[in-house]
Amino acid sequence: MAAGRRVVLVGSTASGKSLVALDLAERLGGEIVGADSRQIYRGLEIGTEAPTVQDCARVPHHFVSFLEPAHGYSAGRYGKEARASVLEIESRGRLPIVAGGSGLYVRALLQGLFHGPARDDAIRARLTERIREEGLESLRQELGRVDPEALEAILPGDPVRVIRALEVHELTGRPISALRRERAPEPFPALLFGLRWSRPALAERIASRLDRQLARGFLDEVRTLLEAGLPEDAPGPRTLGYRELIPHLHGEYSLEEARRRIALKTRQLAKRQETWFRLTPGVHWIDLQEEGDFARAAREIEDRLDRARERP
To answer: What mean pLDDT is predicted for residues 1-29?
Structure first.
């Protein structure tokens, strides 16, 4: 299979990426490579809406439910390992279909990540204190003066990347954007597709999915996670949904309040994901209005893939 004929399917949470990827994989003899930073953990399958046993029996899946929830996993590591997985799938004559909503994972796969100077805790502490005293916008303005290109790529409300860009500039005397261009790995070509819903329709999908998850045993899954005695800073308990249900199980508020908080924060996450992928170049967007549109989306991707194969 020629490079650049592989598929990457993105979109916000609850947009139906998994359903379209399954349909497409069955049509074309494909295998699904997950790009979700939470579905990688074992024991979080219900709350992260990870592929089910039945899904995995229909189509081979990679990068799902393979890591203990106490262990960390970086986007840089994902990028390297997912590239290797995609190439291995292609070597067997199968179609790799990368599907997920973790924008940094997708970027790490397609573009690689910049490996700059090691973190400097003193600089980070000072910049973090400045955010508390002056506000994030003050640091964003400073970054705009020394590296406007880097600032343009950072979403509002993202202090982590602002701090990193200023940290690199202070350590090296050079813009992080320039260093990225010099040290960037070879790009990993793919055809990018995105699924998009109207905001009200997506909110309804988020609410109905949450009800389905609770009916499937989401609370019991959270109890099991608590009983494992994980450290407070373990990645698993910090996953959206789990971190709202844990206080409910401790008696801090009702299940209905937990449900309200999860739905709200999931809608906020969806908005951030939409913004991220809207700024990602090369995405062909497919607008959806109802469940029956998933098959149409898979056919549209198949048609575009066929046309790409016909090009020299």
So the answer is: 89
Read off the pLDDT of residues 74-105 as tens digits, 9 standing for 90 and up. Answer: 888 999 999 999 999 999 999 999 999 999 99
CB 47 within 8 A of CB 113: no
CA distance 140 to 261: 29
DSSP code of 265?
Answer: H
Is there a contact between 188 and 83 (Cβ–Cβ < 8 Å)? yes
C-alpha span between 188 and 283 (Å, rounded): 15
Dist. CA 16–CA 18, nearest whole Å: 6
Is pTM, for the whole model, over 0.70? Answer: yes
Could you tell me which residues come within 8 angstroms of residue 180 by beta carbon, excluding any fewer than 6 positions away? 114
Domains and CATH numbers, the chain: 7-112+186-310 (3.40.50.300), 121-183 (1.10.20.140)
| Contact status, residue 38 vs residue 104, Cβ threshold 8 Å | no
Gap between the Cα atoms of 277 and 51, Å rounded? 22
